[in-house]
Amino acid sequence: MSWEINRDRCLRCGGCVAVCPTQALELTENGVIVDEEKCIECGNCEKVCPVGAITVGDDE
Amino acid sequence: MKDVVVVGAGPAGCSVAKELAEEGYDVVVYEKRQEIGAPKRCGEGLSSSAVDNLGLDIPEYCRMQSMDGALVYSPNGDSVRIHSDETVGWILERKTFDKWMAERAAKAGAKVRAKAKVVDLLPENRGVVVEIEGERKKVESRMVIAAGGVESLIAKKTEVKDQSDLEVVDSGYQYEMVNLDLKDENKLELYFGDEVAPRGYVWVFPKGENKANVGIGIAGDLDETAKHYLDRFIENNERFSKASIVEVNSGMIPVGGLLENMVADNFMAVGDAANQVNPIHGGGIREGIKAGQIASEVASRALEKDDTTKEELEIYNHMWWEERGKSLRKVEKLREVLEDLDDEDLNYLAKKLDGQDLMDFTQGKRLSKLGKLLLKRPKMIKSARKLL
To answer: DSSP label at B224?
Structure first.
């Protein structure tokens, strides 16, 4: 499981939450958090993030 | 027990809450953010025809600048100038507009609460679990209306929405800038082209006194980010060199994926939570408020009959599709066709179309004119047929 967020870049818009197919993401007071049990590493959140704050998988 | 819990105090949620409260129902609206309307995720434009149609009497302090048209730029820099002698729209201040909407709901008798996060639905959608200042409590109600925006988890907890399709979301990014050199302070500027904004556009929405929302919406499945494209656009434009950034916004815009069904037992979804957005320009204020009005009519009747089953609430599906869905579906088709166009096609169309054409197209009207023009481009024949 590899899901990382750069909290300095994140604007807390919740866009990633909107496209998560397994509802693994949640927008909290402290930014987006992931439920590792639910995440299937599809990469949707990484792709749509307007500011490139999310990295999924091991490719980087 | 409450009559209705509304989840989300944006324009859609406040619209439905106001109408139902006016009918005498006991309504509570929960908003997860600490400030209603902020930070905005919006270019803040609203057309005059929408204002009239919705019957809104928007106070002066929420309207930053009147618009009398637009300057639409094709990839080669040619432009189509849309001009009207009358005001055709407004750039709002969402921060004050959303609060005004909430105030109207509250004055009508609804209870609005900011910084109150709905975390779950109660069984059979008969209420919610809400978290306020770290404390979770159950709030029972006869029905729940989801108006929590594009990321609404509440809508996803029901059968209504299961969206993860990147084809129908755009990724949005925006700066509010000051000290700008605007081309015309009463016109929207729109920039199209694969270089500038793949499957989308860059907008400059003037807010008066050389201020503007400078933003971009692009396809949600690209390799580069929306921020990357917008920063490049700004860097390549000399007239932004003296401008300053006073606010940074981002968000996801549903641009399709209209839902056939937006209800469940004791449950309805309105606004961005139900993908009710104009698929061509991404505007959601009008759609949200309109859907709120339609939903309130249906909910009110259902509550009165004490029958809030899915079957009864389905009237909302029919009414919304009749009034908004059908024309938005046409607009969605237009969006699909535009995606097939390359920069040369766009340059060609810019020469052939005038402002009125563009205004009509965004409302799903007279699309056959576009279809006929595209028939003259051999590789566009297939796409053209979609519009004829």
So the answer is: S
At residue B300, the pLDDT reads 98
CATH number of A24's domain: 3.30.70.20
> Confidence band (pLDDT; 50, 70, 90) for B164?
low
Q: Could you tell me if B282 and B343 lie in one domain?
A: no
The parent domain of residue A37 ranges over 3-56
CA–CA separation, B42 vs B378, rounded Å?
A: 37
**ipTM, 2 decimals?**
0.93
Instruction: State the residue range of the domain holding B309.
Output: 2-65+91-164+259-331
* pLDDT surpassing 70 at residue A19: yes
Q: What pLDDT does residue B20 have?
A: 98
User: What pLDDT does B359 receive?
Assistant: 82
Residue of B nearest to A53 (CA): B225
Say if B212 falls within a structural domain: yes
Q: Which residues pair with B87 in a beta bridge?
A: none
Distance (Å, whole) CA B7 – CA B16:
11
Q: If you average pLDDT over residues B155-172, what whole number do you get?
A: 84
Instruction: Please check whether residue B29 is in contact with residue B12, taking contact to mean a CB–CB distance below 8 angstroms.
Output: no
Q: How far is A3 from chain B (nearest CA, A)?
A: 18
Quote the number of domains for chain A: 1
CA closest to B164 among chain A residues: A19
Last-in-domain residue among B231, B254, B277: B254
A60 pLDDT exceeds 80? no
CATH number of the domain at B26, please.
3.50.50.60
**Contacting residues of A for B245, CB less than 8 Å apart:** none
B270 with B325, same domain: the answer is yes
pLDDT in tens, B18-65: 999 999 999 999 999 999 999 999 999 999 999 999 999 999 999 999
Distance from CA of B199 to the nearest CA of A (A): 13
Say yes or no: B276 and B244 in one domain.
no
**Are B290 and B184 found together in one domain?**
no
pLDDT above 90 for B96:
yes
Q: Tokens for B288, please give them.
A: 């949200």
In whole angstroms, give the CA distance from residue B271 to residue B286: 9
Query: Higher pLDDT residue, B388 or B372?
Result: B372
Residues B145 and B242 in one domain: no
Type of residue found at B295: A
C-beta separation of B225 from A15 below 8 A: no
Check if B163 contacts A (Cβ < 8 Å). Answer: yes
Each residue of B277-298: b (16+ CB within 10 Å) or e? bbbbbbbbbbbbbbbbbbbbbb
Beta carbons of A51 and B173 less than 8 Å apart: yes
Task: Using an 8 Å CB-CB cutoff, list chain A residues near B220.
Answer: 19, 47-48
Clarify whether residues B216 and B280 are in a common domain.
Answer: no
One domain for residues B179 and B325: no
